[in-house]
Amino acid sequence: MYRRLLVALVCAAVLSASAAHAKSADGRETPPDIPRLTDARGRVLTLRGWNVEDKTHRGEAALSAITERHFRDLRAQGFGFARLLVFWDDLEPERSRYSEAYLRRIERVLGWAHKHRVQVLIDAHQDVFGPAFGHRGIPEWATRTDGLPFTPHPDDWFAEYFEPAVQRAFTHLYEDPDLRRAQADMWRVLAGRLAEHPAVVGYDLINEPMGEIAQGEDLPAAARRIEREQLTPMYNRLADAVRSVDEDTWVFFEPTPVVGEGVPTGLGRIDDPRAVYAPHFYNTAMEAGADYDPSAGWIEAYESAVTVYPRQYRVPVVVGEWGPLNNALPNMGRFYRDALRSLNRYGSGWAGYVWCYGGGYCAVDAEGRFRTNKEQTAAPYAPAVAGRITAEAFEPDTAAYRLAYRAAGGVTEISVPPRPGGWRIELTGPARTATPVLPADRAATARVHARPGAHVTVLVTPRAPR
Fold it and tell me: What is the spatial distance between Cα 37 and Cα 45, in angstroms, rounded to a whole number?
């Protein structure tokens, strides 16, 4: 999340951000040469879902706010992906003493996800470093401040990242040899425990990493230096640690949050064949309470900036967090339409923030009904395509979804959310499905079988309610 301080520090960078785009066959602008996420069968994956979290409970009560209902309701709306927040301070409350109880709680949550066919990204989350500063993440025993001051900002918690003690703590995490080993050891324990779990699709190595701004640096310059000199080697160390216990699961890595303001990342190459770039998608003005301003060009600037890295290094993109706090403001309907069009142009998926039952950032209310405008996130899509995608588009005005692909053998999956009247699926080319009509009262998945080498078009359209 971002706050007023970040607005002032990077607004100039937003105005200058730009990058080239290519046109796709249907006229949409689409960044070229960004690979897609794939599964073990080589199918092209699209992950769509929400973050699932419990930041409140610790120790014996850790993760207790997450229930089976979260995953049952996600699947009931057609989502098949969750980014699960876990905390190093709960996993290793004392150096080298790992909590078996916490690992079992993670496994219980993953069991619910697997039961409801939801794939999970394990997110090693931190906010303002960790408990030493009143938040969650890096354990207190791994927090070193050199005695520098820290002043809480209860009305603007993101500003706490710029407190001297917090910034120095990040520097020690990145540079102290024993803390480097401790972080790698933590990932060996976590990935080693979860490597064979069928619900786990990836590991997000650290949430929204920050760092220390040097004297005379502005924030964009500091972010690029931190990403280049500290985050890149850290991610390579942690990827190596994961690979020592898990050869196959995707590793997700994030830039600093400054990328949200249209500033290209300074990250270098992550030397892992199954690495995924996982930026977040927030706007400082909207986080501070402002309505969406389409004329400001923020989404265009973000997309231009965020696609530079995956084009250069040929890695997939999955946006790990996005969504405004004040979702019912007058222009927020337009925001969701614009944001979803952009996200779906270049990414292999996204996780909205956050699947909970209430107000604020919550996706749904206490009864499980979508809050204003958030229902736009539930739409037809293809979680898995057995072949090479040649065109894909969803039109919100008609709720029609179209997928064209060159089949490679295997089963393509089409997911639809519940909708009055249900859905109709039409196929062009040598393909078949056992479910040309999908039900109205629940989310459903159609499976399409096609002859290898065939060019197939799938058209999904809503049926009129009876």
Answer: 5
Which residues have C-beta within 8 Å of that of residue 391, sequence separation ≥ 6? Answer: 24, 25, 26, 402, 403, 404
What stretch of H or E contains 182? helix 177-194
The SS3 call for residue 370 is strand
Length of the chain in terms of residues written? 466
Q: At what angle do helices 219-226 and 4-16 cross, to 10 degrees?
A: 90
CA distance 255 to 311: 15
Query: What's the pTM value of the predicted model, to 2 decimals?
Result: 0.95
Element (H, E) at 10: helix 4-16
pLDDT in tens, 247-291: 999 999 999 999 988 999 999 999 999 999 999 999 999 999 999
Q: What is the full DSSP assignment across 55-93?
A: -S--GGGTTTT--HHHHHHHHHTT--EEEEEE-HHHH-S
CA–CA distance, 50 with 66 (Å, rounded to integer): 13
Nearest to 355 by CA among 86, 72, 62, 137: 72
